[in-house]
Design goal:
Nucleotidyltransferase, domain 5; 4-stranded mixed beta sheet
Length: 478
C-alpha cells in the first residue's frame, strides 16, 4: 500500500450504522446545487434522491466536531455570497469568493458558476421573503477526487487537512444506486452529495442526500397507435386510478386498471380518540393531548411519490421497449380543498414531471370530464357503492367507474376508437341493475331496441360505432 494512501486511511473515522433510508422517493430539494451550468436547448434534466439520516449522538465526537467547524465556515461564506447576490452587491460577492479560498478546494466549486454543484443559480429570481433562515448544505460531487466518495460500502466525506468521516451505507442503498443507474443506461449519471446539519432539531441529526442527475433530449409525443397508453386520474377520496391500454387504430384494448389506495387512517384516528379520552379523565392530560395531535397528523406525501414511481415502473415493464404516452389528470385545487390529501395529490404533477424527465417519457397534464357520457354527451348520474362510484347514462345505458370515464374522452381526443365498457367488472347495485333493464320514457331506444335486449347485463352502447371518426375512415377505405 502506498505511503500516502495508508496515511489517508489512518485518518478515517467510522460512524455507527444508525440511518433512516428514504428510497424510491423522487424529490427535488431546494438549493441542491445541480443547476450550475446553463441548460442546453432541447435537453431536460431528471433527478432521483437517496436520503440517509445519522444521529449525531452516535457519531465519533472528534470527527463530528471537525465537520461542525467546516459547516460554520461554509455557511458564513455562503450567507455572505447569497445576500450579496440578492442585494446586487458586487463587492460582497467578490469578498465571499475571496473568503471561499479558506475552504478545501473541493467545496469551493459551490461558488463557481460553471460548476454543476453551483449553489446560487436561482437567488436573483427568488421573491424577497419576509424572513429567511439559511441552512446551506455542504455540497460536492460524489467522486474519488472530490469532497465525498464511496469505498468499501461506506460514504467517505473529506473534512480537509487529510481527515475523513466514514459513514456506513446500507446494502439496500448501494443496490438502489446501482439500480437507478441501470434504469437510464447508457446515459451518464452525475452524482452530487448534500450534507446537512440542523442543530435546531431534536434529536440532532446529520442528513446526507445523494442526488442522481441525468440529462437527455426532450421527449417528443409518440404515435398513439402502437404506443402504450397510460392514463392516471388522481382524486381526493379514492386515491389514484390508472389505465394501461394499447391501440392499433382499429381497436383499443385495455391491459390493466389498477387503483392505488392511500394509507388507511382509521388506526391512527382510533389511537388519537383513545388518547383524548384518557386526557379528559385526567390521566396525564398534557402527554395524552400531545400524543393525540401527533396521531392525527397524516402526511401522504411519501405515498404519492412512491405511487408515482410505481406507475412509471409498471409502464416501462408493460411497454417492453415500445414508446409510452402518459397523461396525468391532476385534480383542481378547489376539488380537494379541506381534504387530508390536498397537498399530497397536488404534488403529483411535480413528482411525475421529474420522473418523466428521468425516464424520457412524454407526459401531458390535461383534464377530461368525468360527468359527461363519452358516447352521447349526456350528463352522467352517480350511484355510490362501498368502494366505487358508478357513473351511468340514462340515454344510452353506458356505465363505468367514474375514475375511468376520463380515459374514454382522452381516447377520443387522440383520435382512437373507444374501448369496450366497462373497463373492469363492476358489481352493480340492484336498483341500478333494474333501472338499466327497464324501459324509460323519452329514451331513444324505448319501445324499439330495449324490448329485445338481454336482462342479465346491459348491451354495448349503440352510439359507439358512429361516435368514432377513426372507424368511419376505416369503413370508407382508409
Amino acid at each position: 500500500m502506498p505511503r500516502r494512501e495508508s496515511a489517508v486511511r489512518a485518518h478515517a473515522v467510522e460512524g455507527l450504522e444508525l440511518w433512516v433510508p428514504e428510497l424510491e422517493i423522487p424529490r427535488l430539494a431546494r438549493g441542491a446545487g445541480y443547476r450550475g451550468k446553463k441548460r442546453k436547448k432541447g435537453v431536460v434534466e431528471g433527478f432521483r434522491v437517496l436520503s440517509l439520516l445519522y444521529y449525531v449522538s452516535e457519531l465519533p465526537a472528534g470527527a463530528f466536531q471537525r465537520l461542525v467547524e467546516l459547516f460554520k465556515m461554509y455557511r458564513a461564506i455562503g450567507a455572505l455570497c447569497w445576500w450579496s447576490k440578492r442585494l446586487n452587491l458586487v463587492e460582497g460577492v467578490e469578498l465571499a469568493l475571496e473568503r471561499a479560498k479558506l475552504l478545501p478546494y473541493y467545496y469551493r466549486k459551490a461558488f463557481d458558476e460553471d460548476s454543476r454543484v453551483y449553489l446560487f443559480s436561482e437567488v436573483e429570481r427568488m421573491k424577497r421573503p419576509r424572513k429567511m433562515v439559511l441552512q446551506l448544505p455542504l455540497v460536492d460531487a460524489l467522486h474519488p477526487n472530490h469532497g465525498a466518495y464511496i469505498e468499501g460500502g461506506k460514504l467517505v466525506v473529506r473534512l480537509g487537512n487529510g481527515e475523513r468521516l466514514a459513514l456506513p451505507l446500507p446494502e439496500r442503498a448501494l443496490k438502489w444506486l446501482q439500480e437507478k443507474e441501470r434504469e437510464v443506461a447508457p446515459l451518464k449519471v452525475t452524482k452530487i452529495v448534500r450534507t446537512q446539519w440542523r442543530e435546531d432539531e431534536y434529536p440532532e441529526r446529520l442528513k446526507v442526500q445523494i442526488v442522481l442527475r441525468v440529462e437527455r433530449p426532450k421527449p417528443v409525443i409518440p404515435d398513439p397507435r402502437g404506443a402504450l397508453l397510460v392514463y392516471v386520474d388522481a382524486n381526493g377520496d379514492y386515491g389514484i386510478a390508472c389505465v394501461y391500454a394499447v391501440s392499433d387504430g382499429a381497436e383499443t384494448r385495455v391491459l390493466e386498471t389498477p387503483k392505488l389506495r392511500p394509507p388507511n387512517r382509521s388506526r391512527r384516528l382510533m389511537e388519537a380518540a383513545k388518547r383524548r379520552r384518557a386526557a379528559a379523565q385526567g390521566r396525564k392530560p398534557n402527554v395524552n393531548y400531545a400524543l393525540a395531535r401527533l396521531s392525527e397528523r397524516f402526511r401522504a406525501k411519501g405515498w404519492v411519490k412512491a405511487a408515482a414511481a410505481q406507475i412509471f415502473g409498471k409502464a416501462r415493464q408493460r411497454a417492453g421497449g415500445k414508446p409510452i404516452l402518459m397523461n396525468f389528470d391532476v385534480p383542481d385545487p378547489d376539488s380537494v380543498r379541506n381534504s387530508y390529501l390536498q397537498k399530497s395529490l397536488l404534488s403529483v404533477r411535480k413528482v411525475s414531471k421529474n420522473l418523466a424527465k428521468w425516464f424520457g417519457i412524454y407526459t401531458s397534464f390535461k383534464c377530461f370530464p368525468s360527468t359527461s357520457c363519452p358516447f352521447c354527451g349526456e350528463k352522467l348520474k352517480m350511484v355510490y357503492t362501498r368502494r366505487t362510484r358508478v357513473a351511468y347514462c340514462t340515454n344510452c345505458d353506458f356505465y363505468d367507474d367514474r375514475d375511468f370515464v376520463p380515459f374514454y374522452h382522452w381516447c377520443k381526443a387522440l383520435g382512437l376508437p373507444l374501448p369496450k365498457w366497462p373497463l373492469q367488472r363492476l358489481e352493480l347495485p340492484e336498483e341500478l341493475r333494474q333501472k338499466l333493464n327497464s324501459e324509460r320514457p323519452g329514451s331513444p331506444r324505448a319501445g324499439r331496441e330495449l324490448a329485445g335486449r338481454r336482462s342479465s347485463a346491459p348491451p354495448r352502447c349503440p352510439c359507439a360505432r358512429r361516435a368514432h371518426p377513426a372507424d368511419a375512415r376505416d369503413e370508407a377505405g382508409g
